[in-house]
């Protein structure tokens, strides 16, 4: 679906699908360059990062392996609970591998700082983070994010994998959800 299909639910379109694709290509070029000659495992965080993983992985020129993890930090609301649970763990062994976590969004940074520490405890050669979106709060947390697509305002956004109560993930752009939808 596109922004016209949900126009009453969006306050504003932040990034069109073309803008997302263009930025994804730039991130992929940086990753290709930084990981040249390295064995990389990209880890997608379900479910939000599905679209980012699909497009970022295809924009990469190098051979990579892909794995998935599911964690939960939010219920169906719009505020972080601060509690992280592993719903699905990785299949891959991380020992001596270069791991790149791929996320849709970093808000408080709680999920990612927990996840990074968790993966670092498994003996990898390195663990880095790539996120398509980052909110201002996250910039205050001391977590080192190597690749950021866009810094965005502190608003609840949906689309391109990001949901509100499991809806809007299949929206092709990223938009600010109108408050009347969740208030
Ligand atoms: P954090 O722990 O606060 O950084 O939250 C990270 C997770 O919360 C993300 O992986 C998303 O699933 C979810 N999240 C945070 N902000 C938004 C948003 O604006 N829209 C949709 N989901 C969000
Ligand atoms: Mg979510």
UniProtKB/TrEMBL annotation:
Its cofactor is Mg(2+). GO terms for biological process: GMP salvage; guanine salvage; hypoxanthine metabolic process; IMP salvage; purine ribonucleoside salvage. One of its GO terms (molecular function) is guanine phosphoribosyltransferase activity. Pfam families: Pribosyltran (PF00156). The keyword Metal-binding applies. GO terms for cellular component: cytosol. Keywords: Cytoplasm, Glycosyltransferase, Magnesium, Metal-binding, Nucleotide-binding, Purine salvage, Transferase. It catalyses: IMP + diphosphate = hypoxanthine + 5-phospho-alpha-D-ribose 1-diphosphate; GMP + diphosphate = guanine + 5-phospho-alpha-D-ribose 1-diphosphate. Residues 18-164 form the Phosphoribosyltransferase domain. Gene3D superfamilies: 3.40.50.2020. NCBIfam families: HGPRTase. This is Hypoxanthine phosphoribosyltransferase. It comes from Nesterenkonia alkaliphila. The lineage of its organism: Bacteria, Bacillati, Actinomycetota, Actinomycetes, Micrococcales.
